[in-house]
Amino acid sequence: MPPDSPPSDRERASDLPSYLANHDPAVWRMFLEQIDRVEPYLGPLQRWADTLRRPRRILTVDVPILMDDGRVQHYEGYRVHHNTSRGPAKGGVRYHPDASLTEVMALAGWMTIKTAVVNLPFGGGKGAVRVDPALLSPGEIERITRRYTAEISLMIGPDKDIPAPDVNTNAQIMAWMMDTYSMTVGSLTTGVVTGKPLELGGSLGRVDATGRGVFIATNCLAPKIGLDISHARIALQGYGNVGKAAARCFHQAGGAIVAVQDVTGTIHSGDGLDIPALEAHVAQGRKLVDFPGAQTIQHDALWDVDCDILIPAAMENQITDKVARRLKARLIVEAANGPVTPAGDDILKEKGAVVLPDVLANAGGVIVSYFEWVQDIASYFWDEQEIDRRLTRIMERSFDAVWAVHESRKLDLRTAAYLVGCERVLQARNLRGLYP
Ligand code: NAD
């Protein structure tokens, strides 16, 4: 890039900060609509329902860093505590050029419901920096991480708010967050973030936990709807932390992964892709779309792929009513947060397709994050079998709780899961009462 042309993600100081402009409230509206749909079933707890429509705390921060070429560049960061009635806020940090405050509010809200559905002693939070990390050097990413952590340090802490990895963040970034926070408070505080490297108080099983949890939840649901995973054809959007682990689990169970999409493109094979070979291909730093032995299809054609199960594991707001009309799958498993819009839900219900909702399906990550936090506090670490046994037990127990409400109240699985989660949050809210 010539030195006089500004980088694409640069904001001029004269522009309005994006928290005052350009915020697409679509994702937050989705969350509000989901709350509207469960509210009529809340009985006397309805009087507290607005608690869920009002995030508890919102912080927007400026993140200035020194770039490798000597310039000073400003980025915008957010941290939101949606609800802390049941415990400290818990939720990931995302680096994405389209991140916005309203998106982070919705993601934090989903964490509140999720931690309650699986009955962890946490509330809901989320954070983001509006940046495309693909345009930055490792040193620049470290400086963004450290400055962002310092800026939000008044909100985080092992008994206040515990961040974790999300889109475009990973164990190394968690290590820098942990180190920065520890230096700020003057003592090593491993329990301030989860998803850390094993050498720094991370937990065995955390990397694969979300994808593994997606598989466990689907395994609970499949027999109830007459679906045999070992003969299922599966299409997957997103081949990152969550998508990779999910693909591996379904492949090992005998399912055929017939299509995979990431930002580089979409690959398809009617007989099922060789998943171990695909994983090795991507691990070598090669693009998913260049995988040999698969056909390349248009990005949008993913929605027309003939499959039994569709697993969106990338971003929110993907399966709108228009997309939902095209889908062939009879089961949509929300590995990502918020991939199906409320209008998409309505169409899928009309078509007789089942949606396994995010607040249950992708809870494996936060469950093993909880184990990591517990292990850090106790300074006593469990082996992988212990982690997997406990993860499976919590996922199965949570599925059973949601399924029981689905059957007894005749609600779709999302509304049933919201009812389980919202009741727990609002009961805590009601018992605590108002302060002062
Ligand atoms: P990641 O950054 O590791 O991977 C994201 C994947 O999605 C990449 O393969 C990327 O290429 C792809 N992608 C991004 N935008 C896309 C688009 N528009 N179309 C197609 N593919 C696209 O992120 P992740 O941690 O795997 O998270 C994926 C989703 O799962 C997010 O919704 C996240 O909030 C959710 N989630 C993650 C965790 C976790 O433990 N990491 C836990 C619960 C939920």
Structural overview:
This protein is an alpha/beta fold. Among the domains are: 55-189, Leucine Dehydrogenase, chain A, domain 1 (Rossmann fold, 3-Layer(aba) Sandwich); 209-359, Rossmann fold. The chain has 14 helices and twelve strands. It has helices spanning 26-38, 50-53, 101-117, 138-152, 171-185, 206-221, 241-252, 275-283, 321-326, 342-351, 358-361, 364-378, 384-409, 413-432; strands at residues 57-66, 72-83, 89-96, 124-130, 161-165, 233-237, 256-262, 265-268, 295-297, 309-312, 331-333, 354-356. Helix 3 (101-117) links the parallel strand 3 and strand 4 (124-130). Helix 1 (26-38) crosses helix 14 (413-432), helix 6 runs parallel beside helix 13 and helix 12 (364-378) packs across helix 13 (384-409). The chain is globular. It starts with 25 loop residues before the first helix and ends with a helix. It binds nicotinamide-adenine-dinucleotide. Nicotinamide-adenine-dinucleotide binds next to helix 7 and strand 7.
